[in-house]
TrEMBL record:
The gene is catA. NCBIfam families: catachol_actin. Keywords: Dioxygenase, Iron, Metal-binding, Oxidoreductase. Residues 1-24 are annotated as: Disordered. Residues 1-17 have a biased composition (Low complexity). Gene3D superfamilies: Aromatic compound dioxygenase, Catechol 1,2-dioxygenase multimerisation domain-like. This is Catechol 1,2-dioxygenase. It comes from Arthrobacter ramosus.
Amino acid sequence: MSVETTATAAASGANATERFRSDKSAAAEVSTERVNALASRVVKALVDTVMEEKVSYDEYNALKSWLIKVGEDGEWPLFLDVWIEHAVEEVANADREGSKGTIEGPYYVPGSPVLETPATLPMRDDEPGRPLLFQGRVTGVNGEPLAGASVEIWHADDLGFYSQFAPDVPEWNLRGTVIADSEGVYQVNTVQPAPYQIPTDGACGQLIASAGWHAWRPAHLHLKVSAPGYQLITTQLYFTADEHLSDDIASAVKPELVLEPKDKADGTGREVSYDFVLASAA
Ligand code: MBD
Ligand code: FE
C-alpha cells in the first residue's frame, strides 16, 4: 500500500483552506448593494426550495449538521470549486478572445519552481505513470509569438494526489513554471496524471454518497498561461477517451480542452501539442 493512501479529506481540506486564506481572501471586497442583491437571491432560493419541496425538520437538521461538517473538514474551497466555480468562470470569461479557460480548483499553489524550456517538472526518481511530453506555442490573437511567456502547470500524480495536499509527496512534485523561448515555444516533460476522485471521507464525499452521485473528475493538467500585456488564462486540459469527460463532477470540461496524445516514435511515452492564444490586456 502506498503511503499516499493515508491522505484524508480533513488534511487536504485544511491545506486548501489555509492556501485560500493566504492568497485570495484579502482581495475580497464586495459593495453593500451587491451583497444585498446576491445574498437576498441566495436566501430566497433556499426558502423557495424549502417551500416547494416541503422540507422537514429532519432534512433541515441534516443540512445544518452537514454545513457544520463542511467547515470542520476545511472543505468550503472544495465544495465551492467543484459545484459553483464553473459558473463564475463562464461569466468572467464569456467575452474573452483566445483560448478557452476553465476553473482553477482548490489545489493551485503560486511560486512553483521556474524552469527554462525544454523543461521537466519536478518529480521523484521513481515517479509512477506514463511519461508525457507536453509542448506547444504561446501567441497573441494575431498570431504574434509571446517570447518568454509563462506556462505554469500543476497536476495530480499517477495515484491522483496533488503535492502539498496529500502527505508524503515532495513539496513541488509535478508543479512548475515553464518559461517559453523567444518564439513562444514551450516543452515540458511530465507524467500522465490519473483520473481524480475528490476526497470521499469528508463532508463533500458524504454529500456525494448520500445523493447517489460519483466523485470523479477526468484526468487533467491545470495551467495558468501569461505574458506581459496579455490577459492571464487559467485553464485545464483533458485526455481523449477518458470515461469522465462527459460527467465531470466539477462541470469544467469544454470540447476545446481535450488533448489527443500520440505514442512517441522513440517509445518513451506519449506526446501532445497544444497552442495557447492570449487576449490583449484590457
Ligand atoms: C481538483 O483536482 C480539481 O481540479 C477541482 C476543480 C476540484 C477538486 C479537485
Ligand atoms: Fe485538479
